[in-house]
Amino acid sequence: MEEFQLVKDSDHLFVTLAGERWLVDTGSPVSFGNIDHVTILGDDFRIARDYMGMKIEMITDLVRVPCAGLIGVDILNRYDVIFDLPGSRLVFSSQELKLAGETLLLEKFMGVPVINVNISGTSWRMAFDTGAQVSYYEDEKIRTFPPAGQFVDFFPGIGNFTVDAYQVRVQIGSKEYQLRCGSLPKMLGSMLNLMNVDGVLGNEICASAKIGYFPNRERFVIE
Known about the structure:
Oligomer: single chain
Strand content: over 45%
Structural class: mainly beta
CATH topology of the largest domain: Cathepsin D, subunit A, domain 1
Strand order of the largest sheet: 4-9-3-2-1-11-10-21-22-12
Number of domains: 2
C-alpha cells in the first residue's frame, strides 16, 4: 500500500507524485504529461506526451492550476484505490483494500468506470469521472431543480464550454447527496450515448465521502 497527498484546487483533484502535481481523472483512458514516467508501488509507468492532441500545457491553461501531467485509468485501474479527500490522501494498493460503506457494481467502458445512481426515482447509468468538476445527466427535468449558477468546464479535443448548473439530489445506494448537475453540449451528449451511459458523476462527490474505487473487483464503495 502506498499513500499520496490528494487535494482539491479550482474544483479539480490533484495527487502529488515525486513532488509534482498530477490531475487525477478517471474519465481519461490515457495518462499523459511532460514527465517521462511515474512510479507507484514500485511499478514504473511510461507517460505519453499527449492524448487526442491535448498536451498537459493545455490542461494547465484550462484548469488554471500548474501540473506535471494527468493520471488516467490506464494507471488507476491497475490497483485498488481509495479517494480520501477529507483526509487529503489517495491510497493505492496491489492487494484488496477494505472500506466500510455501501458497495455498488462498477462496470467499465474503455476503462472508464460506470455506476448506477438514482435521481427522482429513476435509475441512471453514470460514468464516474473525477476529472469533471460537476455531474451531468441528459434529461429536460434538470431545469426543474434549483439553479446553481454557471461554470466553465472542458473536454479534450473540444476545449472550454459553459454550463448552467442545478442543485440536484442524487441517491447513491441508500444515501442522498446534493450535487451540482448540468447538461452537456450536444456533441458530448452523443458521446455518452455511444458509451451507453446517461450522464457523469463528477468529483464533487469526493468532498462528501470516501470513495473505494476497486475496478479489478468491479466494486465502487462509498463510505
